[in-house]
Specification:
five-stranded mixed β-barrel, four-stranded mixed beta sheet, globular
């Protein structure tokens, strides 16, 4: 693992710590394994050291990132996995939030869900690539789950953590995706209790199996399907935000707008919160906020009190 410490993230109150690189999977549309090589991990000791260092520099939230984050630790001699690392962070880390980037469906285990539900550090936020809601397309993609299995996973998270953010990656216009397959994806997502979507039109990567597959989808059709999915994503985001209205949540203040006399922050479950108040002293502090309304997928709120001593 080639690690190059980053000390500063200008304009961000969140820091990003890369703890894993490479990928051992063989999704047919992805060039990453050829470009980045196999999965490799930063040692748990170094991860904890970097978290303490970033916290000492004033960062209140740290995002753990990787190409295949759920494979963290599989290459290490002590066989310490991601959940073991998170448990160590829970015990060792200072008063900060930890957020995970994307995890493959099989890596969001019941043990991880239980840990997240009771954690004082880990944000209630899962980002999981679905890619398609059609089983034939999933098989052609080299994905290792079915639409039904994905539904069960999302339902398990939601049952244990009803206010957790659950974001999905979706790939529109994969070779062989006909209108029926596209509709199955739309219908699956519409029925799931998710919070947001990241939608990408399929694009060829030379050297990947998918680039040579027959029945490539026309660009116009990909664009139309992408827009339908993004519209659904906007609806899901607004609906998720509305569910939080009337609750109190801890918000990390990220900045402000002097002209608008506004502050902006982020909840643990990945919602932007706008506050009708401008106070630069609140930047990079945790505050307790009562949520009063929803606007285009964001929340409006009123500050109750500071939630830390920062």
């Amino acid at each position: 693992f080639a690690f190059h410490p980053v000390d500063d993230f200008p304009g961000h109150t969140r820091a990003f710590l890369k703890i894993q690189d490479g990928c051992n999977a063989r999704c047919t549309y992805c060039i990453v394994p050829q470009a980045r090589g196999g999965s490799r991990s930063l040692s748990p000791e170094r991860v904890l050291l970097e978290i303490r260092r970033l916290a000492q520099k004033g960062y209140r939230e740290i995002v753990l990132t990787g190409i295949h984050l759920g494979a963290y630790g599989a290459d290490l001699s002590q066989s310490a996995g991601l959940l073991d690392l998170l448990r160590a962070i829970e015990e060792d880390a200072p008063e900060i939030r930890i957020r995970l980037s994307s995890l493959e469906p099989a890596e969001v285990t019941d043990d991880l869900i239980r840990f997240a539900a009771g954690s004082q550090r880990l944000c209630p936020h899962f980002h999981i690539p679905l890619q398609s809601g059609d089983d034939k397309i999933l098989t052609a993609m080299g994905r290792t789950y079915t639409a039904a299995a994905f539904r069960r996973l999302v339902d398990r998270i939601h049952e244990r953590m009803p206010h957790a953010a659950i974001g999905l990656d979706v790939l529109a216009g994969f070779p062989g995706e006909d209108e029926q397959a596209a509709q199955r994806t739309l219908h699956l997502i519409a029925s799931l209790p998710i919070s947001h979507l990241h939608v990408f039109p399929y694009s060829k990567r030379p050297g990947t199996p998918a680039a040579a597959m027959p029945r490539q989808v026309e660009e116009k059709t990909k664009k139309e399907r992408t827009e339908r999915l993004r519209n659904l994503g906007r609806q899901k985001k607004s609906a998720f935000a509305r569910l939080q209205v009337g609750t109190d949540m801890t918000v990390l203040i990220e900045g402000g707008n002097v002209k608008a006399r506004e502050m902006k922050g982020l909840t643990g479950n990945y919602l932007t919160v706008l506050l009708d108040r401008h106070d630069p002293l609140l930047v990079n502090r945790f505050v307790s906020v009562s949520m009063t309304g929803e606007e285009d997928g964001s929340l409006r709120g009123i500050i109750k009190m500071s939630a830390d001593n920062g």
